[in-house]
Amino acid sequence: MTETLCIKPLRCGHCGRELPVMGQLVTFQCPECSRYWVLSGDSIEPVAVFRAAPADANPADAGGANVYLPFWVVDVDGAGLKAQIEEAMRELQSAAQAVIRTGYEGENAKKIPAASEISHLAARIESLGTFKVYVPAFKSLNTYAYLKVGRLLTRIQPSFGLERSDGAGHPVLCALRAEEAIALVDFIFFATLPESTQSNGDLLAKIFLSPARPPRLVEFPFRERGASLVSIIGGFWISGRLVQGVGSLVE
């Protein structure tokens, strides 16, 4: 059987206008009605795009140009995640006790994170109610950017407001689909944990983060400072070299 390759133009599902294609990006903004669309399988779906606004405006951040970097924000139920962590810890403790009772540890011994460390982690997650994981969606020549920047925002769990981004001429430069972002959630969360917990494969193997609702596409503001990008929400900085095409992101 001969397969036929069919090439179709990308058209806005609202007004029918052809959508501009921008390299590796998976999101498009209609030049006619300004609606946003994202690739999903072999079709396109409408997508809401938001911009994060600092909860407490800092006068030092007023004025000047910002760089907006897109992230998929994945909400995870804090109580459910806490329960997973505590159950995993109990299973490890039970396994360790069983080894001790046999009188032989050797290779069968289970390394257990400090109970106080896990209790502190579980309490913090529960106190947040909804735990957010931030998956970077911008283009990068260094995939470490996805881990580093996502880890920093996820660790901080910043407060911010959301503004709908639907103005003409504001394409969101997203190179990662929502389903791909979900596949990275566990890795980014694990990277936020204390080193002693990160190194415990037995514990991490029992933890799986499930989104409480579909991910939201949110652009976060950064300010250029020399060769660095400083997060207006969170206050941390990253190397501008981690982000491909920084110049085209400046507004």
Continuous helix count: 6
Number of strands: 10
State the share of residues found in helices, binned by percent.
25-40%
- Principal-axes shape call: elongated
Radius of gyration: 22 Å
Flag low-confidence runs: 59-64
End-to-end CA span: 51 Å
Strand content: 15-25%
How many structural domains does the protein architecture include?
1
Largest beta-sheet details: 7 strands, mixed
- The helix/strand class is alpha+beta
Average of pLDDT: 82
- The run of helices and strands is EEEEEHHEHEHHHEEE
Task: Provide a descriptive summary of the structure in words.
This protein has 251 residues and is of the alpha+beta class. It has one domain (27-249). Helices cover 29% and strands 23% of the residues. It is built from six helices and ten strands. The chain has helices at residues 78-102, 115-128, 144-156, 178-191, 195-198, 201-204; strands at 27-29, 36-40, 43-46, 49-54, 67-77, 130-136, 160-164, 216-225, 228-231, 237-239. Strands 4, 5, 6, 7, 8, 9 and 10 form a seven-stranded mixed β-sheet that branches. Strand 9 (228-231) and strand 10 (237-239) form a beta hairpin. Helix 1 packs antiparallel against helix 2. The radius of gyration is 22 Å and the shape is elongated. The model is unreliable at 59-64 (pLDDT under 50).
